[in-house]
Amino acid sequence: MGATAEKAEPTEPLRLNAADAIREAIISGDFGPNQRLVEAELSQQFDTSRAAVRNALVQLATEGLVERIQNRGARVRAVSLDEAIEITEVRMVLEGLCAAKAAEHATEADRERLREIGSLMQAAVATGDVLGYSDLNRQLHARILSVSGQTTACAVLERLHGQNVRHQFKLAMHPGRPNVSLPQHLAVIEAVCSGDAEAAEAAMRTHLRSVIETLPEVDKDRTRRAPAGA
Question: Taking every annotated instance into account, which residue ranges of this chain make up the domain HTH gntR-type (predicted)?
């Protein structure tokens, strides 16, 4: 009995480690849309058992990151334009709520950090540092969610971010987008830092409504650039 218990204990940590590793690979773009996820290859890549990988793929399927097809295995789930828009519409509601709560809960240290991010975003736009701006964009949204203290909303948003990250990255790379989104981000920062919950929610909704309006244009550009037969 003791030997059996000792063997069973590592199962849960292995499963969580495999899920975290595969999730990060999907979110970072290392695994692309529709890419096959072969248990044997993932087991070797992440130095874990095939059982742990299998459990991880089941978990990631419930999160909407992986698609399991009968008799064909698993693959990274592709998110359509329509679904990306729906996801962003949900984000608009939840992140608007979080911005309002952040305005109510922000400390002086929080306000200093938000303003610092805003200054860095301005510098990134001025120098044409698109990748740097994209990273600061993520930092800003994450910081506002953290300050809000809305754990349930944050958990939902984290899952949605994983599903929609590839569309978000394409949006960040879209020509001229940083110049459009910068004043929107600065408006969110100013409202949160001034403690105006209503203005913070409105500014965040305005920003994400702009994202929704731009997504079809970004998707059309992606389709136009795709090689024939892709």
Answer: 12-79
Residue 178, CA distances (Å) to 6, 84, 117 in order: 53, 19, 14
* pLDDT of amino acid 10: 43
Q: Per-residue pLDDT tens for 56-104?
A: 999 888 888 898 888 788 998 888 889 889 999 999 999 999 999 999 9
Distance CA 7, CA 2 (A): 9
Question: Is residue 52 in a domain?
Answer: yes
User: Please, which residues have CB within 8 angstroms of residue 115's CB and are 6 or more apart in sequence?
Assistant: 189, 193
Q: Are residues 125 and 13 in the same domain?
A: no
Q: Up-side HSE of residue 126: CA atoms within 13 Å toward CB?
A: 6
Which pLDDT score, from 0 to 100, does residue 168 have? 65
Report the predicted TM-score, pTM, of the whole model to 2 decimal places: 0.74
State the burial class of residue 141 (Cβ atoms within 10 Å of its Cβ: 0-12, 13-18, 19+).
buried
* 155 lies in the same domain as 70: no
**Whether residue 71 is found in the same domain as residue 89:** no
Give 14's pLDDT tier (boundaries 50, 70, 90).
very low
Residue at which a domain ends, from 54, 76, 98: 76
